[in-house]
């Protein structure tokens, strides 16, 4: 007897009551994913979650003066937010697989919003601000991973899921590009106002609680969940994909974001505003290309897209120190941005295809942890390189790693269906 079916939470097709994803066999791949209410809610959630760093950093110079701290100390406001995610995201992802996605996501959004908004009311000491940032980091730890998990649950493997993941990557990068301007405007009024941007997560949390109709694993599925170690042991390609995305973000945060401003200053001496605009070109490029991965995957396997993205990113890094005119640098930055845009979306899509639905949040949480490890390790490694070899060497080392990673992905990942 065939399994009973129920209407899918996305409003498209049906899913077996035992819990497979939304059927898309009868739908055209180009059907509008953005018209799906659940996708819209998830994209709003992603946008609300990325404000915690990009929306706050423009206030750092004013915070240094207002609280009488050093430039090294103010950087702890980022560390305090990101470090909880390294340790908590895998645990919270596994919890979301065993209980329910919304059971973890909704409280996380409210903690993120409450602690972040509370920062806007702190006038000192600095330690109190740090403590609230840690609390905000605890709330923010699982949000992006669960957004990706919910999108993957809404659609079965194929073009519509890839499109949804691409839009989510685009939302993340557009927020990263736009929030500094908003945070800078608020910081011009008062140094503490940018922290109030986190309050947007309150209404988003209510939307998730009352309006999001997502698919949750069945009780039978949750009992079948096994450990991350077992998944990595059984499928080495999952481990390889996690290593690839960690390296990708090490290149992004190490070679590009940390030292492109230094390269620009040494070579062209532009103003701070110009440097900010040039650096943001990669985020815009990443957002735009992320939305096109679904189209590219119709012609080229996602495995090959990942390999090519690393090669393109590596080539762009190698070229940046040799660009003779300032107007050329935004073009190089935009070329570099296509690498993370394609690779991140394709890697996440591949991860969702290689693990069963009841284990998806755990693996995607591991993906978020790998990203945070790359974000943390990249600047440390490139800082060691620049100390002995100079600024340009950081880009050459990044280029070499990118090219090597592209070759490793090409050889190590067997192409599936595009």
Fraction in helix: over 70%
Return the string of H and E elements.
EEHHHHHHHHHHHHHHHHHHH
**Please, how many helices?**
19
- Classified by CATH, the class of the largest domain is Mainly Alpha
* Average pLDDT: 84
The CATH H-level superfamily of the largest domain is: MFS general substrate transporter like domains
Distance between the termini: 33 Å
Query: Which outline best applies?
Result: globular
Strands side by side in the biggest sheet: 1-2
Which structural class best describes the helix and strand composition? mainly alpha
Integer tally of domains: 2
Q: What is the number of strand segments?
A: 2
> What kind of oligomer do you see?
single chain
- Rg, rounded, reads 21 Å
Strand proportion, as a percent range, falls in under 5%
Describe the sheet with the most strands.
2 strands, antiparallel
**CATH topology value of the largest domain:** Growth Hormone, Chain: A
Give descriptors for this structure.
disordered N terminus; globular; 2 strands; 19 helices; 418 residues; Growth Hormone, Chain: A; 2 domains; two-stranded antiparallel sheet; single chain; mainly alpha
Written account of the structure:
It is a single chain. The protein has 418 residues and is mainly α. The chain has two domains: 33-210, Growth Hormone, Chain: A (Up-down Bundle); 228-418, Growth Hormone, Chain: A, CATH 1.20.1250.20. The protein is 72% helix and 1% strand. It is built from 19 helices and two strands. The chain has helices at residues 37-49, 51-54, 60-67, 71-74, 76-98, 101-119, 126-140, 143-154, 159-189, 201-210, 219-222, 228-234, 236-267, 272-290, 293-296, 302-319, 329-354, 360-389, 391-412, and strands at 5-7, 14-16. The protein has a two-stranded antiparallel ribbon with strand order 1-2. It starts with a strand and ends in a 6-residue tail after the last helix. Mean pLDDT is 84; it is low at 1-30.
């Amino acid at each position: 007897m065939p399994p009973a079916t129920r209407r899918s939470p996305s409003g498209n097709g049906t899913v077996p009551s035992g819990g497979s994803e939304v059927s898309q066999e009868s739908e055209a791949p180009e059907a509008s994913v953005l018209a799906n209410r659940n996708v819209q809610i998830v994209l709003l959630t992603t946008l609300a979650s990325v404000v915690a760093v990009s929306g706050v950093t423009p206030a750092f110079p004013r915070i240094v003066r207002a609280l009488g701290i050093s430039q090294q100390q103010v950087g702890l406001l980022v560390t305090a937010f990101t470090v909880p995610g390294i340790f908590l995201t895998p645990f919270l992802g596994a919890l979301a697989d065993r209980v329910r996605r919304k059971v973890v996501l909704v409280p996380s959004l409210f903690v993120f919003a409450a602690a972040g908004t509370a920062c806007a009311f702190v006038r000192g000491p600095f330690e109190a601000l740090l403590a609230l940032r840690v609390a905000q980091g605890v709330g923010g730890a699982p949000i992006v991973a669960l957004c990706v998990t919910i999108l993957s649950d809404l659609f079965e493997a194929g073009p519509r899921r890839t499109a949804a993941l691409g839009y989510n990557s685009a939302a993340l990068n557009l927020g990263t590009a736009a929030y500094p301007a908003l945070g800078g405007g608020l910081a011009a009024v008062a140094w503490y106002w940018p922290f109030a941007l986190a309050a947007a997560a309150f209404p988003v949390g209510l939307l998730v609680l009352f309006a999001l109709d997502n698919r949750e694993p069945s009780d039978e599925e949750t009992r079948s969940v096994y450990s991350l170690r077992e998944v990595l042991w059984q499928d080495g390609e999952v481990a390889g994909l996690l290593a690839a995305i960690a390296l990708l973000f090490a290149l992004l945060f190490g070679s590009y974001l940390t030292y492109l401003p230094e390269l620009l200053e040494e070579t062209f001496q532009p103003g701070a505003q110009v440097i900010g605009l040039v650096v943001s070109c990669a985020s815009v490029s990443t957002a735009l290309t992320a939305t096109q991965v679904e189209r590219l995957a119709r012609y080229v396997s996602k495995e090959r897209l990942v390999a090519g993205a690393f090669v393109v990113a590596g080539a762009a890094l190698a070229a940046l120190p040799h660009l003779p005119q300032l107007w050329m640098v935004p073009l190089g930055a935009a070329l570099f941005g296509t690498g993370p845009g394609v690779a991140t979306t394709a890697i996440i899509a591949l991860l969702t295809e290689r693990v069963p639905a009841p284990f998806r949040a755990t693996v995607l949480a591991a993906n978020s942890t790998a990203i945070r490890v790359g974000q943390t390790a990249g600047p440390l490694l490139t800082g060691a390189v620049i100390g002995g070899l100079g600024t340009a060497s950081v880009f050459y080392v990044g280029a070499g790693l990118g090219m090597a990673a592209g070759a490793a992905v090409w050889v190590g990942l067997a192409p599936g269906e595009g």
